User: Which sequence fits this backbone?
């Protein structure tokens, strides 16, 4: 079982809906990440939080809004999504570490479908 | 942006055979990671490499961090049916901010024929 828990596992929403994806870890990690993965493709980085502050935004559209309310939780708020946003959304966490040395541990993802 | 070239894209092997896959990059990475992803699950970390030239094993898996820091390989010995899945290499640089995202290769799809 993964130590990074993502909910829900599956989400179907219309283009006008507002929903949120949630991620939780209790490994004491202070860096958390959102990735997007399309079918048969590798994960692509969206956002990085370090010590609860947004440190990297990979030019993600504003219809995706991340939030890190505390060191254990990471949310991704969704609004007015497009059909091409349908994908597996993966959360990961790690110790920020020195020299980027700490590996990232992934959750099992939320499978998002936009109607 | 940085790109990783992972090969082969897919492998069809017989149970018991050894497997080898590799990743190359035009950029230097500080860390190389190898993950396996099964359908409906997230990537699971197999091996992490932190130093150029480092050779690390995890059971039947062996991986090496290339001396130029621009490549890495993963070997699987005596493959078994549960080795089926998609294997990703991932590289990480250090920007000084303490946390950096990963750049992934396109994956190697391992299929084991009975």
Assistant:
């Amino acid at each position: 079982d993964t130590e990074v828990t993502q909910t829900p596992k599956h989400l179907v929403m219309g283009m006008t809906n507002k929903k949120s994806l949630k991620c939780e870890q209790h490994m004491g990690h202070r860096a958390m990440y959102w990735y997007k993965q399309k079918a048969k493709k590798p994960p692509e980085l969206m956002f990085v939080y370090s010590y609860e502050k947004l440190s990297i935004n990979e030019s993600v559209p504003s219809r995706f809004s991340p939030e890190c309310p505390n060191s254990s939780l990471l949310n991704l708020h969704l609004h007015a999504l497009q059909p091409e946003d349908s994908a597996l959304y993966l959360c990961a966490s790690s110790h920020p570490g020195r020299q980027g040395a700490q590996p990232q541990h992934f959750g099992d993802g939320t499978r998002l479908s936009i109607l | 942006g940085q790109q990783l070239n992972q090969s082969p894209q897919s492998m069809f092997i017989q149970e018991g055979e050894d497997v080898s896959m590799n990743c190359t990059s035009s950029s230097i990475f500080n860390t190389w990671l190898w993950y396996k992803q099964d359908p409906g699950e997230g990537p699971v970390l197999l091996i992490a490499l932190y130093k150029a030239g480092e050779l690390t094993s995890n059971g039947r898996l062996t991986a090496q961090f290339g001396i130029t820091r621009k490549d890495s390989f993963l070997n699987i010995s005596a493959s078994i049916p549960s080795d089926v899945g998609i294997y990703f290499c991932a590289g990480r640089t250090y920007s000084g901010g303490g946390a950096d995202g990963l750049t992934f290769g396109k994956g190697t799809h391992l299929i084991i024929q009975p």
